[in-house]
């Protein structure tokens, strides 16, 4: 007897309210399977655009973004507490 047949036999003897609960449980199990679907890599989005971002590009962008961040202001406040 297959697992599907065993489940069907067990569900057949349940009262209607418990059959509905079994359906909800199976739907819950299906959502757990759907969440485990592997994610698609974002590199494929720009693969045909001939874009090549290097580690150096990222480092330079970070320096530009954070270069004028007022660090002294935050460190001075820590000393005054």
Labels describing this entry:
81 residues; mainly alpha; 4 helices; elongated
What's a quick, concise take on this entry?
With 81 residues, the protein is mainly alpha-helical. The protein has two domains: 3-35, no CATH class; 42-79, no CATH class.
What does this structure look like?
The chain has helices spanning 3-12, 16-35, 55-66, 71-79. 63% of the residues lie in helices and 0% in strands. The protein has four helices and no strands. The termini are far apart. The mean pLDDT is 83. The chain is an all-alpha fold and 81 residues long. The radius of gyration is 28 Å and the shape is elongated.
Describe how the helices and strands are arranged.
Blueprint: H1 3-12, H2 16-35, H3 55-66, H4 71-79
Q: Tell me about the biggest sheet?
A: none
Number of domain units: 2
Topology pattern, helix = H, strand = E: HHHH
- Provide the gyration radius in Å: 28 Å
Overall form: elongated
- The N- and C-terminal alpha carbons lie at a distance of 73 Å
Strand segment count: 0
Tally the helices.
4
How much of the sequence lies in strands comes to: under 5%
Average pLDDT for all residues: 83
Helix/strand class: mainly alpha
Which regions have little confidence, pLDDT < 50, spanning 5+ residues? none
User: Share of helix among residues?
Assistant: 55-70%
């Amino acid at each position: 007897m297959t697992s599907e047949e065993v489940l069907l036999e067990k569900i057949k003897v349940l009262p209607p309210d418990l059959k509905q609960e079994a359906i909800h449980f199976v739907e819950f199990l299906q959502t757990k399977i759907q969440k485990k679907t592997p994610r698609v890599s974002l590199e494929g989005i720009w693969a045909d655009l001939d874009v090549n971002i290097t580690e150096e590009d990222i480092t330079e962008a970070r320096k530009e973004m954070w270069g004028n961040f007022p660090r002294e202001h935050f460190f001075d406040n820590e000393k005054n507490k």
